[in-house]
Amino acid sequence: MFRDSLIIMNKELKRLFTDRKMIFLLVLVPLLILPVMYSVMGYMEKVRHKDISEYEADIFVYPGEQNETSVFDRFHNELKEFNAKLNIIPEQQIDISKDLITEKESELLIVFPDNIQKRFGDMAPFDIQLYYNASSDYSSHIYYKTRNSFDAIGDTLIVERLERMKLPTEILSPFTINKTITPEEANLAKKGSIAGKLLGILLPFFILIYLFSNSLTVGTDTVAGEKERGTLAILLVNQVDRLSIIVGKMLSVICAAFVGAVSSVAGLIIGSRFFISMFGGSMKEMKGFVLLAKDYLQFAIILIPVAMLVVAIVMILSTYARNIKEAQGMIMPVYFVVMIIGVSTMRMSETPSTWMIYTPIFNSLISLKSIFMQNAIWGNVLISAFSCLILAGILIYYMLKMFKDERILFRI
Hints:
mainly alpha, four-stranded mixed sheet, elongated
């Protein structure tokens, strides 16, 4: 039986990997598209930040009625340092200014209360109103920049009040945080673990997607395609056990799925310098990320069963379908479900729910993520592997029954 399976697998692989279009889809697309995609995203993010920081904002300022201006002048002088056009407006134009910000024709409105100098002298707080448009990048940027600057002025005003009252300024800070150590000394994460965390967010999802998409491309052609071309009937009349046919075809589809998954991993690692900077990481952290032999072993123990399960899902639907078009139509809803599972695990907490640990595919993604974060537990790795193997075995059993029932295999 095994010899027949190998013959069928070799025939399928020869057909796949002598087709230039198939090689392009299976190998080159995942290898090239991820670095290109992340380099474009990184470049666009860099351009966006540069554009926002260099944009000359339009700021309306209602100064209020001020008898003395020394405190107001501090705020006004700070605003003059911004790359912005300041427009001093009367009270009657406040509503018009708000409308302009809503329509994104201006970025910020600042409304000062009356007599802030007197309020400051009387130790009474005063409220400065900032109006902005959260849906505009330019408006949000200048809002937070103004707010931070005004907060800094507020700190200096508090210090002046204390000095006027002859009180030590140290009473404002009963404690400090990390003033005596550097940020690097404070961060006790293992070397490379931050890069591993970022890779763990994206890589399991892309591995699953390429396993499924490559299985879809090859698996539908291997069974439904052969039905459509009439070659499956010729294969079945030969003296070959049907289990051998299934195993041979499955092995060829698993090989194709692995090639795509490995290409996607290579592509993502090549493009890692771009997406790590997008998430606030650095190449120094990426260089410190190293997978150990134990990690590669756990990776293989998880990947092989989940690949078998994905291929079994695709091939059982391909076996039931009358042609490639029908098979693709039946597989697409399953593909969307797999995508939802993949996306849902990208931002999950570090402690997954118990049902996730025992649910096939979910537990594989969780275990893959923990491998990249270098905190995988052998128990969870084995649970994910065995649960996928058991489910794949059940699907293969039903696929064998379908192969033996020609009313299903060649239904009209």
